[in-house]
Specification:
The chain is α+β, with helices and mostly antiparallel strands. A hairpin with a 2-residue loop joins strand 8 and strand 9. The chain is elongated and about 70 Å long. 16% of the residues are buried. The protein is 35% helix and 32% strand. The protein folds into 2 domains: 59 residues, Ribosomal protein L9, N-terminal domain (Ribosomal Protein L9, domain 1), CATH 3.40.5.10; 78 residues, Ribosomal Protein L9, domain 2. It contains 3 helices and 9 strands.
Length: 149
C-alpha cells in the first residue's frame, strides 16, 4: 500500500515521504495513529501545506534540543552507590537513576531518551548518550562512586 508519512517513523521514512508498506502495517498502525495517510492526490496536496508548517516546527525543536545538548555536555553527574569487592555495585544504576540525578541538577528529562545498553553495575566514570531529537544526541559524563555507610 502506498502511503505518505505525516511524521518520522523509525526505519520507514521521514515526514512527507511517499513509501510502500504492507497493507496491515498501514491499516493497523500507521493510519490509526495518524502517522500516515493513503497516497491520494488530495492527501498529497493538503500534506504539502502541512509539511511547510512542520518544517518550521521541527527546526525549532532541533534548535531547542541542541541548546539542551550543550547544557548536558557541561554537566557532570555523580551517583553514590554501595559497592562490594572489586568495585561491583549492590544493585545497578539504571535510566531512572540517571534521570533523577539530572532532575537534581535542574534538568527534567524522559528516562526513555537515555540510551543505556545495560544497567551500570560497577564503580567508575561513564559517558552516557541521550537522544534529545532524532538528529541530536548529547553525551553526559557520569561518575558512579562508592557511598559511605
Amino acid at each position: 500500500m502506498k502511503i505518505v508519512l505525516l511524521e518520522r517513523v523509525e526505519k520507514v521514512g521521514s515526514a512527507g515521504d511517499e513509501v510502500e508498506v504492507t497493507d496491515g502495517f498501514a491499516r493497523n498502525f500507521l493510519i490509526p495513529k495518524r502517522k500516515a495517510v493513503a497516497a491520494t492526490s488530495a492527501n498529497k496536496k493538503s500534506l504539502h501545506h502541512l509539511l511547510r508548517q512542520n518544517t518550521a516546527r521541527e527546526e525549532r525543536l532541533r534548535r531547542t534540543a541542541e541548546m539542551m545538548a550543550g547544557r548536558i555536555a557541561e554537566l557532570h553527574c555523580v551517583i553514590a552507590r554501595r559497592a562490594g569487592d572489586q568495585d561491583r555495585l549492590f544493585g545497578a544504576v539504571t535510566n531512572q537513576d540517571i534521570c533523577a540525578a539530572l532532575a537534581a541538577q535542574g534538568l527534567e528529562m524522559d528516562r526513555r531518551k537515555i540510551l543505556l545498553q545495560e544497567p551500570i553495575k560497577a564503580l567508575g566514570s561513564y559517558t552516557i548518550s541521550i537522544r534529545l531529537h532524532p538528529e541530536v544526541v548529547a553525551e553526559l559524563r557520569l561518575t558512579v562512586e562508592h557511598a559511605e555507610g
